[in-house]
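for the recovery benchmark. tokens below, seq after
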């Protein structure tokens, strides 16, 4: 990879992507754990990946863009379905 390409890729990641992707951290893990416990009490199951994604979104008070809005419909997360006619109807 050329130096210019590496610099371009680094710039893309730091300026455009990094601020839009929240990492899993302790707060996210705590939120995911609370959600999993709540769902277990209600007799509902949730995929571990979706539980972690929900935890990250809740911990960061972030919106979540997903096609699978039903997986998160019982959470407080503001959902965006990029495939819907009205993306915020999810």
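predicted aa per position
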């Amino acid at each position: 990879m050329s130096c210019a390409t590496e610099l371009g890729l680094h710039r893309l990641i730091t300026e455009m992507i990094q601020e839009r992707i929240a990492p899993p951290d302790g707060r996210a893990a705590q939120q995911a754990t609370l959600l999993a416990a709540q769902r277990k009490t209600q007799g509902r199951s949730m995929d571990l990946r979706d539980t972690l994604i929900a935890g990250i979104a809740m911990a960061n008070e972030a919106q979540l863009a997903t096609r699978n809005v039903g997986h998160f419909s019982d959470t407080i997360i503001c959902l965006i379905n990029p495939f819907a006619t009205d993306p915020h109807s999810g």
